[in-house]
Amino acid sequence: MEAFVAGFEVERFIFELKKDEALQAALKERAAGTFEGFDLDPDELAALRDGDVETLYRMGVHPLLLAPYSRYAGIAPPDYHKRLDVLKGVQKFNSERRFAKPGESNHG
């Protein structure tokens, strides 16, 4: 399978989805204009439109974003977990933030 990297717009869509009830309803109803205003490539659009959490995960979307997305997309929690369980180890996510010691920089 070809490797993908989710773009900023996928994560922005999910971030907006978490706080916008109209967008939540549009996604649930599969409304035509759901993704207007988001610059998604065809693979990203298809994965978001189809509730394809496996592809979104492979694209690099963090599970902490996928979980709320899956709820708004109508995927039951047990099904969401079942679909991602088979992908354990496919991606390595690092949520740690390295803080600089005095005199060091966080940048490169």
Characteristics:
108 residues, mainly alpha, 6 helices, Extradiol ring-cleavage dioxygenase LigAB LigA subunit domain-containing protein, LigA_sf
Estimate the global geometry from the Cα principal axes.
Answer: globular
How many beta strands in the DSSP annotation?
0
Order of helices and strands: HHHHHH
Class per helix and strand makeup: mainly alpha
- From the alpha carbons, calculate the radius of gyration and give it in angstroms: 16 Å
Percentage of residues in DSSP E strands: under 5%
Through-space gap between termini: 32 Å
Average pLDDT taken over every residue: 83
Fraction of residues in H or I helices = 40-55%
Main beta-sheet annotation: none
Residue ranges: pLDDT <50 for 5 or more in a row? Answer: none
How many helix segments? 6
How would you name the oligomeric state of the polypeptide chains in this document?
A: single chain
- Count of spatially separate domains: 1
Polypeptide structure, described:
The protein has one domain (8-85). The chain starts with 7 loop residues before the first helix and ends in a 23-residue tail after the last helix. The protein has helices spanning 8-19, 21-29, 42-50, 53-59, 63-72, 77-85. It has 108 residues and is an all-alpha fold. α1 (8-19) packs across α5.
